[in-house]
Amino acid sequence: MIKSLGRLGKIQDSRSAMLVQDIEGSVGNYIKDVDGNVLLDVYCQIASIAIGYNNPGLLNLARSEKWVRASVNRPALGVFPPTDWAETLENSFLRVAPKGLNQVFTAGCGSTANEIAFKAAFMYQQTVRRGNKDFTAEELESCLLNEAPGSPDTKILSFRTGFHGTLSATRSKSIHKVDIPSFSWPVAPFPDLRYPLHENVEYNHSEESRCLDATEKLIKKWDSQVAAIIVEPIQGEGGDNHATPYFFKGLREITKRNNVLMIVDEVQTGAGCTGKFWAHEHWELDTPPDFVVFSKRLQSAGVYHNLSTRPPQPFRNFNTWMGDPIRAYQAEFMINEILTHNLAENATVVGEYLKEGLNKLSTLYPTQVSKVRGQGTFIAFDCENTEIRDKIALSMRQHGYDILMIFHKI
């Protein structure tokens, strides 16, 4: 493995690589490296493998005529969609569309999908502000100079320790942002809950109320319009931070009161890992979010929304590929597997078993295992320090488990 990484490092930055994968030898939930080690992959790459390695059904699909032709003749979907594109969308992404949303805009990755949602939010708000009228000459001329009124000073509000792949909204780690210019966008506090939840109900309710109050104050006092807020159901990359449905319902009420759109970033939490296909289903909102962004486990990306947030003019939210048909074919197969085999429900069962075991360990070894939390199999715990964390990670790998330990202060 060292030799392989050394060769790669000469032509590409390989310092983040954990192992060199033997793709052919990886099967199901087990990943094999070039040295012949086989590990139970409990992290699913970076939360991006939904139904295991070398799934026989997916391999057969990849050999199909439609897959081969779509791969060889990748279409620019916004201009030249293939004959089966509408059917493919209906049988894949729209089959599991979040309740209340009936449009899908496909994309290449989670970062791109979030930026598509941002653009749609900005366009919607400005369309409303100009009374659904056509652009003025001043708007058309000033936007080319990056000046108002064509380039308005509107914002996206995000939350501390959130990660969205877009620099101005990401708040998880300095390493992702340092040295790079960003927009002056507002950041609201995200609840810091105490665990176990059932022993800290009063404190956690007060903490979530504090964050809700701070969010609404930010929206009202900011020097320019907040077009939308973006929030993750679970802040995975930022520390596996959770909040209760009370908090998210409160956010939705704030956005409705203040004419702000709500973007839910389900890049890491979608496709059943939390016990429901979409993590925000746990909140039981009275009105759906305006946008739901997906990627990772579905091997594709995109944004769910409604017709009201589709830009009035064509070519405004647009890029060359606008997704990829073969990834939609892949998502269609995986969605069917998840639904047919009740994998989301199984995630609940397995998750409860795992949390029960971790909670027992936390009573015996409180410095090694604390703050056990999670939904479905999206589970985390804290270590007292990085030395303990590193020892646990090394021991787990030596015993055949591929896990990810994240140091959240970098």
From TrEMBL:
Q: Which GO terms describe its molecular function?
A: 4-aminobutyrate:2-oxoglutarate transaminase activity; pyridoxal phosphate binding
Its recorded reaction(s) are: 4-aminobutanoate + 2-oxoglutarate = succinate semialdehyde + L-glutamate
One annotated Gene Ontology cellular component of this protein: mitochondrion
Name the InterPro entries on file.
Aminotrans_3, Aminotrans_3_PPA_site, PyrdxlP-dep_Trfase, PyrdxlP-dep_Trfase_major, PyrdxlP-dep_Trfase_small
Q: What class of enzyme is it?
A: transferase
Q: Which residues cross the membrane?
A: none
Requisite cofactors:
pyridoxal 5'-phosphate
Q: Name the CDD domains for this protein.
A: OAT_like
The UniProt entry's GO biological process terms, in alphabetical order, are: gamma-aminobutyric acid catabolic process
Keywords on this record? Aminotransferase, Pyridoxal phosphate, Transferase
- Superkingdom as given in the UniProt entry: Eukaryota
Per UniProt, what is one Pfam family of this protein? Aminotran_3
**EC number in record:** 2.6.1.19
Q: Which family does it belong to?
A: Belongs to the class-III pyridoxal-phosphate-dependent aminotransferase family.
What name is this protein filed under?
Answer: 4-aminobutyrate--2-oxoglutarate transaminase
